[in-house]
């Protein structure tokens, strides 16, 4: 069946490492310190989330301790800025977003098919959110710029993209995303750029 929509999972810097014991999308580990602490990359080819896969938590935390910067954990104000950035991009791109949950360490979205690839749409969403974080003075690495003045990205390099091929899968993903905040004892989220799913996911 053709792809009708996407469940996108964007992780913050430091949340999902290239050598996470559950698997990752990376081919190799760029940081020597991270490699020593956690081993080689654990690439997987599945498009499904492996978050629930049993793993060695001690090994994962040891690797995180070797990061060059502290993992990014959004505050409420930062999450609002991310949402505002998403809204600006959605308004100018006509991207359809059926669900969104901006969590402290990762973000879930269900988006309809667009005129460009889901990977590109996700990167543009991340860029718009980063711009808004910077504009509001809320960028997580604002106090630690590179020598050239640029700031490190608050996001992981890539993202999980789950392909949804039918109405049942789309509605299940929307429900999952909408319920995600309650799993971390957070309030329900209502974003202005989210539109109801009416059975059609194409733009």
Write the layout of secondary structure elements.
Blueprint: E1 5-12, H1 32-38, H2 57-64, H3 76-93, E2 97-102, E3 106-112, H4 118-135, E4 155-164, H5 167-183
Antiparallel strand pairs: 1-3, 1-4, 2-3
Task: Describe the protein's architecture and organization.
This protein has 203 residues and is α+β, with helices and mostly antiparallel strands. Helix content is 33%, strand content 15%. The chain has five helices and four strands; from the N terminus they run E-H-H-H-E-E-H-E-H. Strands 2-3-1-4 form a four-stranded antiparallel sheet, sandwiched between helices. The chain is globular, with a radius of gyration of 17 Å. The two termini are 18 Å apart. Mean pLDDT is 80; it is low at 22-44 and 62-66.
Key structural traits:
203 residues, globular, single chain, alpha+beta, 5 helices, 4 strands, four-stranded antiparallel sheet
